[in-house]
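Subject: Sanity check before I submit

Could someone independently write out the structure tokens for this chain? I want to compare against mine line by line before I put it in a report. The sequence has 161 residues.
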Amino acid sequence: MLNFIGRAIVKADSHPSDPTGRLEVADRMHSAAIHLLRHAAQKDGLSGQGPARLSALSVLVFGGPKTLGELAAAERVKPPTMSRVVSGLKRAGLVKIDADASDARRVRISVTPKGERLLGQARKRRIEALTSAFRALGESDFKTLRQAAEIIEQSLRQARR
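---
Independent answer below. Compare away.
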């Protein structure tokens, strides 16, 4: 079986350990999620910041201030890489760096109002791109998509417990 981009997907019947088809659905959702985010990210260039900076900024906006190590771990990169990303964000006035109150050897990185605005604008452009992509859907398909979003959110909340 092929998914919407022509990539072979895992067939449930080829996996006796997954007779319910959950493996196939997970594979299709994985592919769709990647393509959905790539479609939305096409608008990110308008922010003037690269993907690594926008991603780190997002962690700070939605997760609050972090140490360099925490931010690097959240982004799954090494501290020297994150140090370069943070330096660029600081030069752009999108984050500020303060001494950590509990450990003078560490710093805390937090987003500035300018950084919050920039990320808000980037997020708005992404959402508008997705809204445009969904515009062609009929009412029934859109209702199904809304239900799928709710199911995905609920499943992820349960998985985190």
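---
OP: Matches mine. For the report I'm noting this point. The helical segments are 22-41, 51-63, 68-75, 79-91, 113-134, 139-160.
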